[in-house]
Amino acid sequence: DMENPDRVLIGSRETASGLKAREELVEIYANWIPREKIITSNIWSSELSKIVSNAFLAQRISSINAISALCEKTDADITEVARAVGMDSRIGGKYLNSSVGFGGSCFKKDILNLVYLCRHYGLNEVADYWEGVVRINQYQQERFSLNMLTAMFNTLADKKICLFGVSFKANTSDTRESPAIFIAKKLLEEKAEIIITDPQALRNARADLAGLEGRVSFIDDPYRAAAGCHAIAVMTEWDLYRDLDYQKIYDTMIKPASLFDGRNIIDHRRCHNIGFNVYPIGKPALTHF
């Protein structure tokens, strides 16, 4: 971000000292950032720009996830819908990958800051609109856990479920607001036994789930983690999980074995042919029932 940003936004007070400080920062950044990428504004504009950028990104995710729920009730495929919509040059294809939901320390926090500001200034309808982005994200996670319960014959008691990934996104150890932590807690409420695997985030996951050690296990190796489980839920889009030997994994699991793809990164048809009952996001389930 520091070396090759989309833009640099510098906010300041509209005073002599503020404008002087702004120009000094512009000169510093201009040593490696093209001038056309350096934006200057007043303080309110710069603060709102940061919050609104994250709100718009989260809005995109909640929008496609809302449509994924409709796709699961029809014969539509969310990947096909997202591709068609994203090819519209006015919309574009970024942040149109349906999933179990967004996490991290910024999106929810910044949206709720925006909601607070709107309510403070009496803009309740605007606040409700942005609060809906967070509600849809919560709904998507609750819907995912409910789909797991329903698919596994409405009981998870004493069933072993392996979560592939616990960080809120790939290539980080950050588990703040991670959908995987929420899903793990929901499954534990249903008396399931949880095994979590992740290449980087197990230490943070242990802290997030402290006090539940007797019902949650943490295993680095995904093959060992999935062995003896009734189901796998892909929670983080690590490239590692795209390339696993799912035949080898299936052979070690309790049958019928289920695969819930919360990131739509697995070859669903191939895993179904292996023997899995496959439950993607926003697509028809592939089962052997």
Question: How would you describe the shape?
Answer: elongated
Largest sheet: 6 strands, parallel
Helix-residue proportion? 40-55%
Overall structural class, as computed from helix and strand content, comes to: alpha/beta
Strand order of the largest sheet: 5-4-3-6-7-8
Name the CATH superfamily classification of one domain.
NAD(P)-binding Rossmann-like Domain
Please give the oligomerization state of what you see.
Answer: single chain
Can you write the helix and strand succession as a string? EHEHHHHEHEHEHEHHEHE
CATH architectural arrangement of one domain: 3-Layer(aba) Sandwich
Overall mean confidence score, pLDDT? 97
Content of β-strand = 5-15%
Quick overview:
With 289 residues, the protein is of the alpha/beta class. The protein has helices at residues 16-29, 43-73, 78-86, 107-120, 124-151, 179-189, 202-208, 222-226, 239-242, 246-251, 268-274; strands at 8-12, 38-42, 160-164, 193-197, 216-218, 231-234, 258-261, 277-279. It has a six-stranded parallel β-sheet with strand order 5-4-3-6-7-8, with helices on both faces. It has a two-stranded parallel sheet with strand order 1-2.
Describe the 3D structure:
The protein has 289 residues and is an alpha/beta fold. The protein has a domain at 148-279: Rossmann fold, CATH 3.40.50. Helix content is 47%, strand content 12%. It contains eleven helices and eight strands. It has helices at residues 16-29, 43-73, 78-86, 107-120, 124-151, 179-189, 202-208, 222-226, 239-242, 246-251, 268-274; strands at 8-12, 38-42, 160-164, 193-197, 216-218, 231-234, 258-261, 277-279. A six-stranded parallel beta sheet has the order 5-4-3-6-7-8, sandwiched between helices. It has a two-stranded parallel ribbon with strand order 1-2. α1 (16-29) links the parallel β1 (8-12) and β2. α4 runs antiparallel to α5 and α5 packs across α6 (179-189). The protein is elongated, with a radius of gyration of 22 Å. The termini are far apart. The mean pLDDT is 97.
